[in-house]
Amino acid sequence: MSDKPIVILVHGMGSNFxxxxxxxxxxxxxxxxxxxxxxxxxxxxxxxxxxxALGDSGAARLIALCESYGEVDVVGFSAGSVxxxxxxxxxxxxxxxxxxxxxxxxxxxxxxxxxxxxxxDPDSPVMRTVRTxxxxxxxxxxxxxxWVRRSDAPPSFADLARVKAPVxxxxxxxxxxxxxxxxxxxLPQARLVRLADTDHFSTTSRDEARSVVVDFxxx
Length: 219
Hints:
This protein is of the alpha/beta class.
């Protein structure tokens, strides 16, 4: 195995480790590259328990997992990228390299109130998509929506100055989230890769995305 740290994979909203990463070949590609891999399920997704205790949060859980390894590389997608970036901004010393897929400025600009309001509208396009993904992944839709209502506030762009690790941003050219201009400007060591003919939800299924991330983590 590699002398580099374990790679933790953080999936998108409504999905889980198995559905978002294992089924799409990410785990096998990383293992073939000699890396050790661990999955992190968002609260209420996959094998993870919903948020219950006061002070419990997705970022706190991810940080606790990273602390158990001492140093990690992390790959996140969409809501998993937001959560990963939240954890990295809080505890930058834990992270060697970070790859964030499906992340743009819009997710950091969204207020927690707006996100929670969206979770209350079952007919919104985003929530319809989340329910579909959750059902396909075998998740409890109610638990997933409860996590959305209680999800962590994203870091501010000013918070990103604390990030020490090199960060790879991978974004489809057709991603509805828009541009990552302020992210690239705010992160001390950021590199952006755009995927042609790729929308938000197809990002992790692209071989190019998987290849560029595996190569980035090998450095």
